[in-house]
Amino acid sequence: MFRNLLSRLFEEAPDPKPLATEDAEIAVAALLVRVARADDHYNIAERRRIDQVLARMHGLGLADAAERRSVAEMIEAEAPDTVRFTRLIKDRVSLDDRAAIVGAMWEISLADNHRAANEETAIRLVSGLLGVTDRDSALQRQRIAAGR
Fold it and tell me: How many whole angstroms separate alpha carbon 76 and alpha carbon 91?
């Protein structure tokens, strides 16, 4: 299953099709894991927050969200560079949903109450690659920080 999902996520198709719902959820979860791991301190607070974000975004129970995160951790570890990974999401996910993904990345980054430069750099890079402007990313960060 893991290999099949990995090949579906990274298949080179001339006309990319939208991802199946579960595949899209795992691709987004893998991106959240990548941001959380950017500072080399992937801790329990970040894992729990990823589970909460996935549950909220996709209407899942926490157990299902944790299962998706677990698969996403494997996908993220095997995924090629961030550029190719974000291109996949950009090509197959709407701009509004990509902005929400950036908000989720900020939420994960701030989950441990510590602003890490590596995570912030990763979010800025990913935001640009997803086609989300710096301004919209900053607005997402401010929204998340205000809601804490």
Answer: 18
Nearest to 54 by CA among 67, 42, 37: 67
Number of domains in the chain: 1
Alpha carbon distance 11, 31 (integer Å): 17
**CB neighbour burial string for 41-53, b if at least 16 within 10 angstroms, e if fewer:** ebeebbbebbbbb
Are 35 and 120 within 8 A, CB to CB?
A: no
Measuring CA to CA, which residue among 71, 82, 92, 106 is closest to residue 20? Answer: 92
Q: Which pair of tokens denotes residue 132?
A: 């989300």
Task: List, for residues 24-49, the tens digit of each pLDDT value.
Answer: 778 889 999 999 999 888 989 999 99
Q: What is the CATH number of the domain that holds 85?
A: 1.10.3680.10
Interval 58-81: pLDDT, tens: 899 999 999 999 999 998 888 777
Contact 76, 30 (CB under 8 A): yes
**φ, ψ for residue 115 (rounded to 5)?**
-85, 115
What's the domain range around 51?
2-10+17-146
pTM equals 0.81
